[in-house]
Design goal:
about 15% helix, 3 helices, about 210 residues, 12 strands, mainly beta, single chain
Length: about 210
């Protein structure tokens, strides 16, 4: 877990919003490897093991190999061009994080990625039932089609105004988003944006 990102994490329990306090047992450079994140409101404690913060023990999906074309799609659709950006990749989208990290300077926060994806080198991981991040703190979000209503709501709430969000075409567009583009596989939308002239198709460029 990238230590500066800890300030953006929040306790998922229902109470007043507050940051979490890190108790660090082991860190390498700016990555928290083992320790505890504690909530000063409800005193809940969340362990950090191997760089992963466990807000729950939600099982992870089996390993999925990263695919370069999928990584390019995500990085382009979410416009991950700025080192000051933080993008949340939920579920299976997190499988492509190692490739995205090699082509984008943005920090990546993975929520419930498949097994085999490790924290470090610009990739942070949390395991949780809902996205444990501050409202309006993320620049971009990729939604897995398996997300339940609570996860979708928390991830949409985490998106900053003007931020981009990607989801599978089989998923209904969440409320209060403006669709920017769509193809047979995914849609891309924006939070709090002026309506575009209409959805535009996503086309692949010849390489």
């Amino acid at each position: 877990m990238f230590i500066p990102l800890v300030d953006q994490l929040r306790c998922p329990n229902a109470h007043a919003d507050t940051w979490l306090v890190a108790s660090i047992d082991r860190a390498i450079d700016r990555d928290l490897i083992t320790g505890i994140l504690g909530c000063p409101q409800c005193l809940a404690e969340y362990p950090v093991r191997d760089g992963i913060v466990y807000f729950s023990e939600t099982p992870r999906a089996p390993f999925e190999a990263p695919v370069e074309n999928e990584a390019i799609r995500i990085a382009a659709a979410l416009d991950l061009t700025d080192a000051r950006m933080t993008a949340v990749l939920h579920g299976r989208w997190g499988a492509h994080a190692p490739v995205i990290q090699g082509m984008s300077p943005a920090a990546l926060l993975l929520v419930n990625p498949p097994e085999g994806i490790v924290s470090g080198d610009g990739i942070s991981i949390v395991i949780a039932d809902t996205a444990p991040v501050a409202v309006g703190s993320m620049n971009a979000v990729a939604l897995d089609g398996a997300a339940n209503a609570e996860m979708i709501s928390s991830l949409c709430a985490a998106l900053r105004g003007g931020g981009r969000i990607l989801g599978p075409s089989t998923m209904a567009l969440p409320a209060d988003l403006v669709e920017l583009a769509r193809d047979d596989e995914v849609w891309v939308a924006r939070q709090d944006a002026a309506p575009a002239s209409g959805p535009i198709p996503i086309t692949r460029r010849a390489r």
